[in-house]
Design goal:
α6 crosses α15. The model has no long low-confidence stretch (mean pLDDT about 95). An 8-stranded mixed sheet has the order 5-4-3-2-1-6-8-7, with helices on both faces. Strands 11-10-9-12-14-13 form a 6-stranded mixed sheet, with helices on both faces. The chain has about 400 residues and is of the alpha/beta class. Helix content is about 40%, strand content about 20%.
């Protein structure tokens, strides 16, 4: 029996998202989420898409889930109940999303003790994410010690950025000592969407230049030339770049000094302010774009301001990345906001006709789960909506590595 299944784990600080895929046809066999780990009201939501439980809909398991170890064991039990257990000989690998790979990890990597130790060493660069990623890896290795575990890094796709793009203009020895450079994030999404956009255009990925706008609660832009990332908006951390749900995006660094010297805020307080209390939330009190656009449509002043700031930053990056690429074949929207907020797409493209951008209002307003063009036929630059699929990208990279 050929092993073609990959279990994808995305371990967050208090959650585990998972999908089991069969790479023979890229189909999903089961999906689920464990949330509020270590908190009150923790629960597991599991949906089998094949096996004995298929067709029965979602199942929920309520009750305390103390830690990631208990969470992953509960996931294993749910999968086993559907005949999809981790002991199956059809399971080829476990693919782990790891947020930060630093400069060492620029491709999917089979995890051994040395690799795991290095991922731990990168925790200072991603203190909110890499610890949970490490925990997920440790538990999965305990559950199936014989199974290849593969780390797929958010930063890897952006490792192709030229050095003059990746470097900050600070003292070189200080930057080297503390690993300060631009790494970029959401790499699995940018990789998948840039390839899918080329397929949508019916052209080889090597011939297509794309600006990818990954717009979720976290948001990032990338300039991709021939399938290779040459620039992205996030930097040392996911804080840089676009206005996001709760993150400020681009900011004069002196704001930090001012808050410390004049406001008396501690480093941790400033960190929390910029990452958790800024962006749309800071400007209008809501970080859900659906609520922001609803309020803005009703004339709410702070929501209008927040939406205008969000869109203005998008326009700046579209313009900047047009200059970086020289020739742009498509601007593509993806992730929760990018896929589901026609008003944001319309506002972001409006006024950029000189760059060859235009929208077909009916196509933009139509909802569909499929990749689609929303620009008129005469537009010089295609505008597209391409749903992202980070789990499939992780599974694809993991499976390719273990079956080489």
């Amino acid at each position: 029996m050929t092993a073609t299944r990959v279990l994808v784990l995305n371990s967050g600080s208090s959650s585990v998202k998972y999908q089991l895929l069969d790479m023979a046809d890229s189909s999903r066999l089961a999906v689920g989420l464990v949330e509020r780990i270590g908190e009150e009201g923790s629960r597991l939501v599991h949906e089998p898409l094949c096996g004995p439980g298929a067709g029965g809909g979602r199942r929920e398991r309520a009750g305390a889930i103390a830690d990631h170890g208990q969470a992953l064991r509960a996931v294993a039990e749910e999968l086993a109940a559907d005949g999809l257990g981790l002991d199956s000989p059809e399971l080829a690998a476990v693919g782990h999303r790891v947020v930060h790979g630093g400069t060492r990890f620029t491709a999917p990597t089979v995890i051994d003790d040395e690799v795991l130790a290095e991922i731990r060493n990168l925790i200072p660069l991603a203190p909110l994410h890499n610890p949970a990623n490490v925990t997920g890896i440790e538990v999965a290795r305990e559950l199936r010690a014989d199974l290849p575990q593969v780390a797929v890094f958010d930063t890897a796709f952006h490792a192709t950025m030229p050095e003059h793009v990746a470097r900050y203009a600070i003292d070189a020895s200080t930057a080297e000592k503390y690993s300060i450079r631009r790494y970029g994030f959401h790499g699995t999404s940018h990789a998948y969407v840039s390839r899918a956009t080329a397929a949508l255009l019916g052209r080889p990925v090597e011939d297509v230049n794309v600006i990818v706008l990954h717009l979720g609660n976290g948001a990032s832009a990338s300039a991709v030339r021939g399938g290779v990332c040459v620039e992205t908006s996030m930097g040392l951390t996911p804080l840089e770049g676009l206005v996001m749900g709760t993150r400020s995006g681009d900011l004069d660094p002196a704001v930090i000094f001012h808050l410390a010297r004049v406001g008396g805020l501690s480093v941790d307080e400033i960190d929390s302010l910029l990452n958790k209390k800024s962006g749309l939330l800071g400007l209008c009190g809501d970080n859900d774009m659906r609520e922001v656009t609803r309020r803005a449509g009703e004339g709410d002043g702070s929501a209008r301001l927040a939406l205008a700031a969000y869109v203005h930053r998008l326009k700046k990056y579209i313009g900047a990345y047009t200059a970086v690429l020289g020739r742009v074949d498509a601007v593509v929207f993806t992730a929760g906001v990018g896929e589901n907020a026609p008003v944001v797409r319309e506002a972001a493209v409006s006024g950029l006709e000189a760059l060859g951008l235009a929208l077909d209002p009916e196509a933009n307003a139509a909802r569909s789960p499929e990749p689609r063009l929303i620009s008129p036929d005469h537009a010089r630059v295609a505008v597209a909506v391409v749903p992202t699929d980070e789990e499939l990208e992780i599974a694809t990279q993991a499976y390719a590595l273990v079956t080489q």
